[in-house]
Design a protein that fits this description.
With about 190 residues, the protein is of the alpha/beta class. It has helices at about 1-20, 55-70, 85-95, 115-135, 150-190; strands at about 45-50, 75-80, 100-105, 140-145.
Length: about 190
């Protein structure tokens, strides 16, 4: 009887090996990542520039998908005319204390090298000021390409680039909120401070 069981096990192993050898070459999917959960619900404001909306929206779409995987489902989206208007909206939203984080997305182009660099630099500095004044973290996906031409090739490139930035800003947002949640808990417990 033992010999029959052993023979059956050998046949099963051989059949599995044959199936594996004959299986089509499909790439193995990476294992699903289980992201840490928050102790308290998080609410995020996403402030997006309407200028070059078709490009910038790729950031929002990728951000929303990634942030949901990281257990943040309360996201309010706001749209402003251009990137220059983002900091004031971010400050007003931060002062409401309704949001645990604010994410900004915009594409600053046109008007010569000095103008768009000035606008982008001003926006980034203003967002940092909002963050430091209100203690609400502010994340930037406001981008300034060195060269942007109104061609389909550039539009396609920056749509893909903004999708990548959306995932990156979601990761930074979630990780920072987790870190701040931990830090604030330690401060409240008297461990830090």
């Amino acid at each position: 009887m033992n010999q029959m069981l052993q023979d059956a096990e050998v046949q099963t192993s051989q059949a599995q090996a044959t199936e594996t050898e004959n299986a089509p070459d499909t790439p193995a999917l990476p294992p699903a990542v289980e992201h840490p959960r928050f102790a308290k619900p998080q609410r995020v404001a996403f402030v997006q520039s309407a200028w070059h909306r078709d490009v910038v929206e790729e950031c929002r779409i990728a951000f929303l998908r990634e942030i949901e995987e990281r257990h943040i489902t309360n996201v309010d989206v706001f749209e402003v005319p251009g990137s220059f208007e983002i900091p004031l909206h971010a400050q007003i939203l931060a002062k409401t204390r309704r949001y645990t984080a604010i994410v900004a997305a915009g594409l600053v182009v046109d008007g010569g090298i000095y103008r768009h660099e000035f606008v982008a630099d001003t926006v980034i500095k203003a967002l940092m000021d909002v963050q430091l004044r209100t203690e609400v973290p502010v994340f930037s996906a406001v981008l300034t390409p060195q060269q942007f031409h109104e061609t389909e090739v550039h539009y396609d490139f920056f749509r893909k680039h903004f999708a990548i930035k959306g995932v990156e800003v979601a990761e930074a947002c979630a990780n920072t909120l987790l870190s701040l949640e931990r830090l604030r808990g330690q401060v409240a417990a008297g461990i830090v401070g």
